[in-house]
Recover the amino acids of this structure.
C-alpha cells in the first residue's frame, strides 16, 4: 500500500468513526420534536413592570437582571413588551428624560402573545414571521407568565446535536486560510 | 434533520451583508447607522479589517444604561474588541457552537483578509429551521 492509499484509508476510517458517533449519540430532530409545549423549555418567570414605571427603572432592571425584555402590565394584564430592540430603535440617541418618561411611551404594544401550551414550533414560526427576538407567554387571563427568547429555542435545538455542535475542534479546518480563527 | 445537515456552509443561510463603520467614529454615528439600516449589529473596522462589533445589547448595557455621551464616546471605547468570527464557507455547526458556548447572537463573517463580508444572526438560524420545517426536511 502506498503512502497515498494509507492516507485515504485513514480519512475513510475517520469519516466512518464520525458517522458512528453521530448515529450513537444524536437524536434526529423531527417535526414531532418541536410539537412539545413551550413550558418544556424551562423558562424563567416573567419580570413584569407597570406601564407607568419610568424608562430609567426599566433599563436598570434589565441591566441588573440580565434581561433583554420586560413585560409591561396594566391591571395584571400584559399590554406590551419593552426590549433592547426598543432601546436601540426608539431611545438611543434621542433626547428623552428617562426618569420622567413612562415605559408605555416606548414599549411595543400589541405584542404577540403565546400560551405555555403552544408548541415550540409555533413560537419559532411566530418569531421568524414577525422578526421578533422575544415573545410574551401569558395565561388565559392575559396575565404574564414568562418571556421566550429566540435563544431559548435555539438552545433547545442545539441539545439534539451534542456531537455535531458541542464537540467540535476549537477552530474549523480550512484550506488555504491566512488567519487563525477567533482572536 | 440530523447532525450532517449542520455541516452546510454558513453562506447557504443567506446572512446579511456586514454593516461596517470605522473605529474612530462616534457611538452616535454607529447608532444612527444601525437605525437607518434597521440592523442590530455593526462591524467596527480599522483599515477595513474587523476589530470589533457593537450590538443592540451593547447599546443597552454599555451606552444607554451608563448614560454615556454618544457624541464624545468613540466606538473603540464600547465595542466588543476582537470578536469571535468565522468565514462564510465555515460550517453552520461552528456558528451554533459559538452562539451556544459564547452566548453570542451575532457572528461576524470575514474573508481571508479579515475584512467583514457578512453577519450571521440567530435569526438566520431560526429562518433556516423554519424553511426546513416547511419543506419537510424536519
Amino acid at each position: 500500500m502506498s503512502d497515498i492509499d494509507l492516507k485515504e484509508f485513514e480519512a475513510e476510517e475517520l469519516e466512518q468513526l464520525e458517522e458512528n458517533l453521530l448515529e450513537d449519540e444524536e437524536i434526529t430532530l423531527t417535526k414531532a420534536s418541536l410539537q412539545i409545549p413551550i413550558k418544556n423549555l424551562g423558562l424563567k418567570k416573567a419580570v413584569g413592570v407597570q406601564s407607568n414605571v419610568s424608562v430609567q427603572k426599566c433599563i436598570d432592571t434589565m441591566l441588573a437582571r440580565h434581561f433583554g425584555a420586560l413585560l409591561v402590565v396594566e391591571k395584571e394584564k400584559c399590554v406590551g413588551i419593552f426590549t433592547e430592540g426598543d432601546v436601540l430603535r426608539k431611545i438611543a440617541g434621542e433626547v428623552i428624560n428617562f426618569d420622567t418618561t413612562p415605559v408605555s411611551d416606548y414599549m411595543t404594544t400589541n405584542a404577540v402573545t403565546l400560551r405555555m401550551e403552544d408548541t415550540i414550533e409555533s413560537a419559532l414560526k411566530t418569531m421568524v414571521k414577525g422578526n421578533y427576538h422575544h415573545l410574551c407567554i401569558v395565561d388565559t387571563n392575559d396575565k404574564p407568565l414568562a418571556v421566550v427568547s429566540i435563544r431559548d429555542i435555539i438552545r433547545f435545538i442545539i441539545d439534539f446535536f451534542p456531537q455535531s455542535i458541542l464537540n467540535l475542534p476549537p477552530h474549523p479546518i480550512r484550506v488555504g486560510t491566512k488567519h487563525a480563527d477567533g482572536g | 434533520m440530523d447532525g450532517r445537515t449542520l455541516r452546510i456552509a454558513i453562506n447557504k443561510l443567506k446572512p446579511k451583508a456586514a454593516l461596517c463603520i470605522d473605529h474612530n467614529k462616534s457611538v452616535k454615528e454607529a447608532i444612527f447607522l444601525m437605525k437607518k439600516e434597521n440592523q442590530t449589529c455593526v462591524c467596527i473596522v480599522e483599515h477595513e479589517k474587523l476589530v470589533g462589533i457593537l450590538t443592540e445589547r451593547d447599546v443597552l448595557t454599555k451606552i444607554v444604561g451608563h448614560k454615556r455621551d454618544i457624541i464624545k464616546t468613540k466606538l473603540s471605547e464600547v465595542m466588543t474588541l476582537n470578536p469571535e468570527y468565522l468565514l462564510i464557507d465555515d460550517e453552520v455547526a461552528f456558528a451554533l457552537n459559538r452562539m451556544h458556548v459564547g452566548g453570542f447572537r451575532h457572528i461576524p463573517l470575514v474573508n481571508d483578509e479579515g475584512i467583514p463580508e457578512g453577519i450571521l444572526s440567530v435569526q438566520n438560524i431560526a429562518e433556516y429551521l423554519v424553511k426546513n420545517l416547511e419543506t419537510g426536511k424536519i
Summary: Residues 177-183 of chain A have pLDDT under 50 and may be disordered. The radius of gyration of chain A is 23 Å. Chain A touches chain B through 49 residues (CB under 8 Å). The CA atoms of residues 63 and 102 of chain A lie 18 Å apart.
